[in-house]
Amino acid sequence: MNKVALACLFVFVSVLLHAQQKNCNIQLSGQIVDKTGNKAIDGAIISISKNQGISKDKGIFSLKNLCLGYNKIRIEHISYQPLEMEIYLERDTSITFTLEIEHIHMEDIKIVGYKSTTLTSSTHSLTAQQLAESKGKVLADALAEIAGVTTLATGSNIVKPVINGLHSNRILLLNNGVRQEGQQWGVEHAPEIDPFMSDKIEVIKGAQGVRYGADALAGVVLTSPAPIDYEKVIGGRINLIGNSNGKGLSGHARLEGHANKLGWRISASSKIRGNTKTAGYYLGNTGAKELNYDGYIEYILSRGKFSAYASHFGTDLGIFSGAHIGTIEDIYARIENGKPFESYDFSYHINSPRQQVTHDLAKLNWSHQVNNGGELDLQYSFQRNHRQEFDLRRIESDDTPMADMVLTTQSFDAAYTHHESTVGINANLQVHNNTAGTGTTPIIPNFDNYTLGIFGIQQFHLANYHFEIGLRYDYRYFDVAGYRYDYKNPNANGSLNQYLLEDTKYFHNLSGTVGLLYHFLPNLNWKSNIGLAWRAPSANELYSDGVHHGSGTYEVGNVNLQSEKGLKWVNSLLYKDKAEKIDISLDVFGQYITDYIYANPNPDSVRQTIRGTFPLYAYRQDDVFFYGADLKLEYHITKAIDYGLSASIVKAINTDTKEYLPYIPSDRLAHYLQHQFKDAQALRSSYIKLNHRFVARQSRYEVNSDYTPPPAAYHLLDFTAGTQLHLKSNTIGIIFSIDNLTNKLYKDYMDRFRYYAHQLGRNYSIKLAYNF
Q1: Which DSSP state fits 658?
Q2: How far apart are alpha carbons 534 and 70 in whole angstroms?
Q3: For the chain, percent of residues with pLDDT exceeding 70
Q4: How many whole angstroms separate alpha carbon 485 and alpha carbon 69?
Q5: How far apart are CA 621 and CA 560, in angstroms?
Q6: Cα dist. 29→32, 43, 62, 568 in Å?
Q7: On the CB side of 708, how many CA atoms lie within 13 Å of its CA?
Q8: How far is CA 482 from its chain centroid?
Q9: DSSP string covering 298-354
Q10: Confidence band of 458 (pLDDT split at 50, 70, 90)
């Protein structure tokens, strides 16, 4: 431990000495011009650290006494979009900067008035090729391309993202600038976001409670469309995707255009899939259907922009029939067998058990540039999430849902940004109601949830050092009312009485962040960010008492739960050589969470109900410590051959009991070899790629703490080939892929249905994308 401390002290002193020896006599000069007409721009403000200048006649500017190394530059003009970038200075330099007029506003990096990417946090985006290859997949499977992001599945239909071992309410999802508010609390409640609607998908690792509010203990996922293309009067794209496994077909169409200062976009997507298949057998009742659509309109003002957006997400999902079991003897027999006793055929028909979910979202946004160079951003959003869960019923019709929940959320966000400072306020009103007539007691009661938050973020720079600090305060009021069964005092005949549960809770806490970005060398950067975030317990963790139909479990809440509070430290090393042959990023993290809430499986107990027998999960709370590392490497071996690798390790210890936590991703590695072909006359960007994935057996596991030990390690091979056909100004993208090339029969520890079934077998896929 002393050696580590001495090493850290040595590095710190060396960095300080290095900073004192910096050359700060460099001059930057150049010209500011309009991107569209190449017209010189007078009166633009150019800021680098504490130095500031103004472009004069013909857009000419000059700044002196700048330091050697990376410098962050910001250029502002009342009629143009602000430009921020980093430049590396090693001698006197002359550069021409181009500004975009305000109507080409980068909507995909704007989140209620502040940027989606933070200066000191570990931020990763899917590449254009990864986005194209992931079309037709659910959001979580697309995100799994990023090192450190894995999935938590409930069968083949329902998949949730996991960041550094944390999932559900600990990951904040921003859907086109709006905080997604659905029934995220369930492990079998997938995000109601259609990746077809997004042109940029980004993950920010680390506790981001200051910038994004409570619940962002693990990190943030941002999805956003591209800005309106004002260089085309009208344009769009069409996607068609076919899959062999499940005989699925997906389609998406987008149309957009503009008329002077008015831009617009409409799009729609649909999906249908039948029963999926493992390497050896069909999975009964695993079909899925989707219908989604959205619309967007914006109007360019003299100093800002007004926009409106609305979307609808609708899905009908089948739940694997083998997860709903009749007796105690049967459930243990199926777990021991490891696969269904029944034989299923292919069918598109979706029976009970199933889920039917719709999510409607609408937002209004107004941004305004102030004379002093600042920007004010106001946003109002409304969301309605309607979740219905259907099960096999003995008396009522199967068309009557067992759970019928409606969650409505209204939010108001205001933020003001001036140079390196941002202040803001967020207000949230949420109402959850269970629809009457289901004939069952809802798993969670009705509740009202009110939240108010205020925050401030400041960035400042000193030579090669870039600092970021922030502070936030949130207050949450939670009021609940609903009926519950009294299991402690049954009647003489064994029947249970009901009672009215009423409760009110208050939660409040501070969030904070301190970050540093340091440029060791022109091609080597270090990011370090310490973030404090918190999360109030959700309604299901506090009050659930019943069958969770989607996951095939019986859940019992704990009304005495306290708020989770997590302190996460992420250190990132980023290296890219001058020739851009090697690109490496390494994230090392540690996170201590007090009062961590989790549902612990009890292998010694199951719960029998009139609807069957289910594994029992009870919520508990302990202090825990997460730590691990994520590695990403890209190596351009030759102009035609690329190699890529990603690996992640996460460990989670219950510091109270000194035991491992359940449902933490095991060690994994994925790498690929890709050959890029030379462009032909019409065919361009052609490639073939072979990908290998390895997932280790979860060895960090407490014996006899689950219904069955973790499954064995597995290897998977995937093949992809892609090209683009260019037809004048239009393109047709073609991607052919084979997942699970060897048709391996395997199970994954992070699948809640691994007790009863295996993962998907081989899948052939063809993706067509027509852009016009």
Answers
A1: T
A2: 34
A3: 88
A4: 67
A5: 9
A6: 10, 15, 4, 41
A7: 23
A8: 32
A9: EEEETTEEEEEEEEEEEEEEE--GGGSBS-HHHHHHHHHH-S-SS---------SSE
A10: very high
> What integer is the mean pLDDT of 60-73?
83
Length of the chain: 772
Q: What is the pTM of this model?
A: 0.81
What's the CATH class of domain 195-771?
Answer: mainly beta
Token readout for 327 is 């007796």
Q: Are 752 and 153 in contact (CB under 8 A)?
A: yes
Nearest to 375 by CA among 708, 111, 57, 570: 111
- What are the tens digits of pLDDT across the range 692-742? 999 999 999 888 888 789 999 999 999 999 999 998 889 999 999 999 999
Q: Identity (one letter) of the amino acid at 593?
A: I
Specify the CATH number for 24-101; select among 2.60.40.1120, 2.60.120.260, 3.50.50.60, 3.40.605.10.
2.60.40.1120
**CA dist list (Å): 8 to 1, 3, 95:** 11, 9, 38
Helix (H, G, I), strand (E, B) or coil at 541: helix
With CA atoms as reference, report the closest residue to 426 among 360, 304, 511, 513: 511
Beta strands (DSSP E) in 668-713 are: 668-676, 683-695
- pLDDT tens string 9-23: 344 334 333 444 446
Dig out the tokens for 25 from the structure: 């006599």
| Contact predicate 545/403, CB 8 Å | no
Where b means 16+ CB within 10 Å and e means fewer, 371-407 reads eebbbbbbbbbebbbbbbbbbebeeeeeebbbbbbbb
Inter-residue contact 663 to 152 (CB < 8 Å): yes
Q: Which of 97, 3, 1, 83 is nearest to 41 (CA)?
A: 97
User: Which helix or strand (DSSP H or E) is residue 7 part of?
Assistant: helix 2-20
Measured distance CA(570)–CA(568) in Å, rounded:
6
- Please report, for the chain, the start and end positions of each structural domain, with discontinuous segments joined by +: 24-101, 195-771
Q: By C-alpha distance, which of 266, 141, 550 is closest to 149?
A: 141
What is the mean predicted confidence (pLDDT) over 490-515?
83
Order of all β-strands in the sheet with 166-167: 149-154, 158-163, 166-167
Do the beta carbons of residue 700 and residue 710 sit within 8 Å? no
Over range 370-381, report the average pLDDT: 89
- The pLDDT tens digits of the residues spanning 666-678 come to 999 999 999 999 9
Report whether the peptide linkage leading into residue 353 is cis, meaning its omega lies within 30 degrees of zero: yes
Q: What average pLDDT is seen over the chain?
A: 86
